[in-house]
Structures are given as C-alpha cells and as structure tokens.
Amino acid sequence: MSRIVVVGGGAAGLELVTRLGRSFARRREHEVILVEPASHHYWKPRLHEIAAGTFDDELDAVSYLQHAYCNQYQYLQASMSGLNRNKKQLEIRNVDGDISTLDYDYLVIAVGAVSNDFKTEGVSEHCLFLDSAEQAQQAWDQINPLLRAQGEQHISIVGAGATGVELAAELAKVSEKLGRYRHDAKLRITLIEASQRVLPAGPECMSEKVQQALLKHGVEVRTNTRVKRAEQGKLITDSGEVISADLQLWAAGIKCAPWLAELDGLEVNRLNQLKVYSTLRTTRDNAVFVIGDSAECPQPDGSFVPPRAQAANQAAMHLARQFKRLLKGKSIKPFVFHDGGMVIAVGHDYAVGSLMNNKLVLRGRLVRNLYDTIFRLHQRILFGWGRVTALVVLKRVKGSLNPFYKNNIS
Ligand SMILES: Cc1cc2nc3c(=O)[nH]c(=O)nc-3n(C[C@H](O)[C@H](O)[C@H](O)COP(=O)(O)OP(=O)(O)OC[C@H]3O[C@@H](n4cnc5c(N)ncnc54)[C@H](O)[C@@H]3O)c2cc1C
C-alpha cells in the first residue's frame, strides 16, 4: 500500500483527491491524504462574489471534512511548512500552531499562487487582496459599509486581468441593483491597468468587448496607468497622478509563497513556482509532483501551462490517471494542456468568451450561462451530476425568494 499526500485543496488538489479517493482508498488499495489549512473549499474564480456580497456559502462552499468522508480520503486541517526528501517526510503546522511530520510515498504540491504586488511601495499596507476566501470576506466587510453610506463611494481596483475585471463588474452590478431600492447607494469604480488593454493575457478582440461592457456598467477603465506607490486612501501613478479612493484592491499578477523556494533543494523560477517536467514531476525528485498555479510546467511548443482554473483541473485529471499507471509499475505520460478558451463574467447576466483558439469571440447571456457551467463542471467532479442538479434548482428557488446580496446590507 502506498501513501499519496496532496497538499492544497483548491481547483487542482481537491479534484485530484476526489478522483484518487474514489479510485484507490475505497478499495483500501492505497492511502490518500489531503493537507489543507482551510475548513471549506471555495472555487477561487468566484472569490470576487464573496467580496461583492453575492456568493451563497450555504450552497456553493464545500466542507472538506464532509467531502473527505464521502470520497474516502483523509483530510488533515494543516499547512505544509517544510520538506525532508531523504526521509520522505513533510513538515506540517496544524491550526493550533503545533508542528509535526507526515510520511509520504508520493507527494503532490498544489498550493496555488497569490497576487503579485511587484514590491510596489505601500501596497501590502494600503490595499486589500482577493487571494483567499478570508481575504475576500475581509474585502466584503469593508465594502458593505460603503454600500450603506450616504452619497457616492469610490473603489479603485488595480489589475484588469480576470480577477480585476470580474470584481469591478460584480461591484458595479451590486451598486446598480441596490440603487433601485435605495437611491443614495452608489459605488464609483475605477479599474487601473498598466498594459494598453484590459485582459492583457487574453486575445485583443476579447479585451475590446470586455472594456465596452465595463464602460456600459459605469466602470471607469484606466489603461496605460502604472501604480508606483499606494498610500492611505490614494494611489500614486508613474506620472505622479493621485487617484483617491475610499477602498483600494490589488488584483494584479501572480507569484507563489516564498517557502516553496526553501523545499529541500527543489527548483523554483523567479515567481517561486516549482519547476516540473511535463510529467508534472519536480526536476529534482521523482516522488514529488506539482500541479496548478504553483507549477512551472513546460509544454511541447516551449511555452508553460498558464495559471488558470482550467489548466489546474486538466492537470488534476491527468495526474489521477497517471497514478493508476504508476502504482501498477507502468511509466507515466506527459501532461499537455488543451486550451478550451476563456470566459469572463461581466456582471450577473453577461459574459464574454473566446473559443476555438481565439477564432470565435462570443458575448451575452448565453455565454454567461457557459461561465456558470464551468463552475458546475468543477462541482460535478466533486459531487456527481445528481447533487449538482439539486444545487442548481435550489439556487434558482433561493434566488427567486431572496435578495441577490447578503442580508446584512440594510
Ligand atoms: C478572484 C479570482 C478570479 C479568478 N478568475 C479566473 C477565471 O475567470 N478563469 C480562470 O481560468 N482562472 C481564474 N482565476 C485563477 C484560478 O482561480 C487559479 O488558476 C486556480 O484556482 C489555481 O488552482 P490551484 O489548485 O493551483 O490553486 P488554488 O485554487 O488557489 O488552491 C490552492 C489551495 O492550497 C491551499 N494552501 C495554500 N498554502 C498551503 C499550505 N502551506 N499548505 C497546505 N495548503 C495550502 C489553499 O488554502 C488553497 O485551498 C481566478 C483567481 C482569482 C483569485
């Protein structure tokens, strides 16, 4: 019997333990353990909904404890903090801060990434981030009073990638809908981007359509604007312009946690992503794999797998299959990412999608349904279609009975 330890229960790690648990642990062939500090899983591409008060925890958050029980893997509520490759042991810290070790035969690291402040002065002190459910909740705790305040309140968001765009549009929509009930509720939102266009990593035609939709929602878009410094209530740009705001959020770039660079000699790149071969094995250790945003994984064309939810899901599915081969003594196959396109939600009933290698750019309500389907596909892996159907129906019913935002806006 082998023990597979997966560290991090996000888009990649949770799908992997679900598949491995169902395949191996149910028949007690191999042991599968998830190490994750949080008690609940939130799908990261929806964190902006927590920040905007529109996320439904009751329906869409997943309890690791219950999920582990139903899918036959073990869940340890702890964080990885170190590694001893010779002893095949990882160091973990539990929620009380106690440190212990955990043996493994195979280790999979899937701890994701966080936003990158590019060492911009004052950002960590004066901007909020959306890298975890806790941070998104903290953002909501500060946005909620702004929605209750008299007169116009201003929020600046730095970074017009998927996170920044979706957050700006969601907040604009919440403000617009709330304005129907209370005419004094109004958010002014400025989205700031250093590149020439929003969604700089996406195709140009998509950027245009997304920008048009943002403008329609009343979001002020500032491209070619690089923030040089953040201070209390203001951002100072390269040209010396001061952009004042009641709240500042930073949603630009990605980097991985510094402790990944200190894992017993495992190789990292300048973003602290662990370097792996296309088999997802680390370059220095055959027993250690990395998937998701924390991996720098090469592709046949010389590029690297992008840090996206879709890539994390595909890598999890691939590695689950490869473990079946590996544990039977067979060789494992390389992971090749297949880009199924990009869909960006702009508010509650509109999305822009780029499909077929960017040859087709679609927009509208149907595309927004496609965006929701991507989340439902993630849930399908975790629960199966039966429960997902029940969740969709419940959400519809709740949506028709309750206000769209959290009840604590008064
Ligand atoms: C607000 C937002 C919107 C986004 N929108 C999109 C989008 O529209 N489309 C898209 O493709 N991508 C989007 N992304 C990116 C996408 O969410 C990530 O690419 C994806 O979640 C990466 O999956 P992952 O499993 O590598 O990491 P994550 O999903 O981040 O999971 C990492 C897990 O590791 C855990 N962890 C962290 N440190 C430790 C530790 N020391 N020990 C144990 N566990 C640890 C964390 O608690 C977390 O559960 C968005 C991201 C954000 C933040």
Automatic annotation (TrEMBL):
Entry EC no(s): 1.6.99.3
Coiled coil start-end: none
Cited Pfam families: Pyr_redox_2
Record bears the keyword Oxidoreductase: yes
Any one Gene Ontology BP term: aerobic electron transport chain
Keyword check for Flavoprotein: yes
Domain of life: Bacteria
Signal peptide annotation: none
UniProt entry keywords in alphabetical sequence: FAD, Flavoprotein, Oxidoreductase
Cofactor requirements of the protein: FAD
Any GO molecular function: NAD(P)H dehydrogenase (quinone) activity
Family the UniProt entry places it in: Belongs to the NADH dehydrogenase family.
PANTHER family named in the record: 64 KDA MITOCHONDRIAL NADH DEHYDROGENASE (EUROFUNG) (PTHR42913:SF3), APOPTOSIS-INDUCING FACTOR 1 (PTHR42913)
Protein name: NADH dehydrogenase
